[in-house]
Design brief:
globular, five-stranded mixed β-sheet, carbohydrate derivative binding, Rossmann fold, 47% helix, 10 strands, EC 5.3.1.9, G6P_Isomerase, glycolysis, 424 residues, binds 5-phosphoarabinonic acid, glucose-6-phosphate isomerase activity, alpha/beta
Length: 424
């Protein structure tokens, strides 16, 4: 369901020559012998996930879909980016399906917080608070506001029915609150870290409330875990991508720009940035992940890619089949001179823009391009894509001798902030 093409990347080494090192990294992932091996629960998740919890999750989602206009998802980082990426990619940015999903608990911006509280005031609301640790400050601050709002609006009992907590199975402040208040709870598995958690209730519950076919997503995940189990670089596109990144880094390319040509995939790039940035950016190593939505950003960043400092490579994340298409109309007077496109599909125009840009960046600009092509933007493809990137990320980090599953550097800002806030 995913194709990988490195033929536009000026690779100076053969990807296949990395087979031995890839075999070792594959072994570490699959036999839990590498760094961070407590967090590889995602590798076999398509086979091991809790079916009873999955059914309960779908039932609760369908109950809330009937009674609410808005689901407020309260979480940050790995506890929010995946759900948002999936919902936007699969449903589109202006899908008509209710309820609307609003993301909250991911900022200290008082203006944003006040505007969301005002926006939901007179609507039918449900809440999904998501935090593995249960102590993340952005999320805890927002959830206290939401909890008080819900209890005032609906009374304690109905508020409890409309609040769902996704957290650790046994520990943490959020678990304690959920138990005490009687919220429905879903578990973030111990062995799956935040940025790998979109395939657990962290991502699946908000998606199910948004009307996404989570069974199809899990089918895609399973398909990918079967397809990508073979470490042979002839057949494993995720591993080819992992190796190509390392070769490009050796050739002096320290920045990877993930490029999509679909507006509704902008958040997929944000999710991908966390996955690769937080997994790889440590011990003074790693590529800086950045992103662009083309052709939109060709009118902003395009200049730099074409003629700026040669520090980056692009990874195109393309989609064969658009969710919807538009046929461009003819116009009798043709004052805008656009009749040369009359009768053409707008997706075809998009694909020609992509082809022309690839040629401009690769041939004229000498910017290496890796190309990843997905079939479509369905739930099944999303599940497949997640696993593709998870595996590529694990392997590419192990190739650098990095633990892909921790994030020690994230604590530094928190420590300083707590001191300034007077937290004991
Ligand atoms: O990837 C990560 O681990 C982080 O982005 C976390 O998901 C994020 O900090 C939120 O943490 P928590 O779920 O504990 O509130």
């Amino acid at each position: 369901m995913i194709k990988f093409d490195a033929s536009h990347a000026f690779l100076k080494e053969d990807i296949l020559s990395y087979q031995d090192v890839v075999n070792q990294c594959h072994e570490m992932l699959h036999h839990k012998t590498g760094r961070g091996n407590d967090y590889v629960g995602w590798v076999d998740w398509a086979n091991t996930y809790d079916r009873e919890e999955f059914a309960r999750l779908k039932a609760k989602a369908s109950e809330l879909r009937k009674i609410c206009d808005v689901l407020v998802v309260c979480g940050i980082g790995g506890s929010y980016l995946g759900a948002r990426a999936a919902i936007e990619m699969i449903n589109g940015l202006y899908g008509k399906d209710k309820p609307e999903i609003i993301f909250f608990g991911n900022t200290f911006s008082s203006t944003y917080i006040a505007q969301v509280m005002e926006y939901i005031k007179d609507k039918e609301v449900a809440v999904n608070v998501i935090s593995k640790s249960g102590t993340t400050t952005e999320t805890a601050l927002a959830f206290r506001l939401l909890k008080q709002f819900m209890e005032e609006k609906y009374g304690k009992q109905e508020a409890a029915n409309r609040i769902v907590a996704t957290t650790d199975k046994a520990r943490g402040t959020l678990k304690t609150i959920a138990l005490q208040e009687g919220y429905e709870t879903f578990v973030i598995p111990d062995d799956i870290g935040g940025r790998y958690s979109v395939i657990t209730p962290v991502g699946l519950f908000p998606m199910a409330v948004a009307g996404i076919d989570v069974d199809a997503l899990m089918r895609g995940l399973k398909k990918a875990s079967d397809d990508l189990e073979n470490p042979d670089l002839h057949y494993n596109p995720a591993y080819q991508y992992a190796v190509a990144r390392r070769i490009l880094e050796k050739q002096g390319k320290d920045v990877e720009m993930l490029v999509t040509y679909e507006m509704q995939m902008t958040m997929v790039a944000e999710w991908w940035k966390q996955l690769f940035g937080e997994s790889e950016g440590k011990e003074g190593k790693g590529n800086l992940p950045t992103s662009g939505t083309f052709s939109t950003d060709l009118h902003s960043l395009g200049q730099f890619v074409q003629e700026g400092k040669k520090l980056l490579y692009e990874t195109l994340l393309l989609v064969d089949k658009p969710t919807l298409d538009v046929t461009f109309p003819s116009d009798e007077h043709n004052l805008d001179g656009m009749n040369y496109l009359a009768g053409k599909s707008v997706d075809w125009v998009n694909k020609m823009a992509c082809q022309g840009t690839l040629e401009a960046h690769e041939v004229t600009g000498q910017v290496p391009n890796l190309i990843i092509t997905m079939v479509d933007m369905s739930a099944e493809s999303f599940g497949y894509m997640c696993y593709f990137f998870f595996k590529a990320c694990g392997i590419t980090c192990y190739m650098l001798d990095i633990n892909p599953f921790d994030q020690p550097g994230v604590e530094v800002y928190k420590k300083n902030m707590f001191r300034l806030l007077g937290k004991n």
